[in-house]
Amino acid sequence: MIRVIKVGGSLFDLRDLPDRLRGWLAAQRAGHNVLLAGGGRLADQIRFWNQLSALDDATTHWMCVDLLAVTAQLLNARLPELTIVDEECTLRERLSAAGTTIFSPASWLRNGERHAAGLRLPWNWDVTSDSISGRLAITLGADELVVLKSSLPRDSTGKLGELAAAGFVDKFLPKMAAELPAVRVVDLRTPSTRELVLNA
Fold it and tell me: Most CB within 10 Å of its CB: which of 43, 49, 134, 153?
């Protein structure tokens, strides 16, 4: 069982995030969990600069990708018992055993993702760590993609396109729907830990 988990950057202000994550992970089916940290407020600042300046979308996309190394380290600082890796080959070596790994994806996005089969990620603002996590799940042959967020829509049919239109996931993730494994979106901020099981 391989599970790719996007940890939304909006969750990083939770003082008890480590305990919430540990508790949630302990309640999941055994396997190997791959955590990918979102960009959060750091990526929002890049987006702000993009709107104010002549920076093109591709440039700011890669700036945000590089910031994911910072948020991966931040997540690792809060969960020091976990191993952080930044190379795809090292990550794949770890998948055969149960456990949890934090993955810093910049090197993979520059060198591995573009050569993998399937729909490639564009270099623009349609892509956030939601789609990066989805693409990683596809290339690893993961059994499940889980997107941890700070909220969920009150009423939803569980359609990826609907969630993208409402801004709960990025615009590109629904375009990969045919390739994605099973997808869940989980509200980790509220005590009830609501979740949606998604469909195309």
Answer: 134
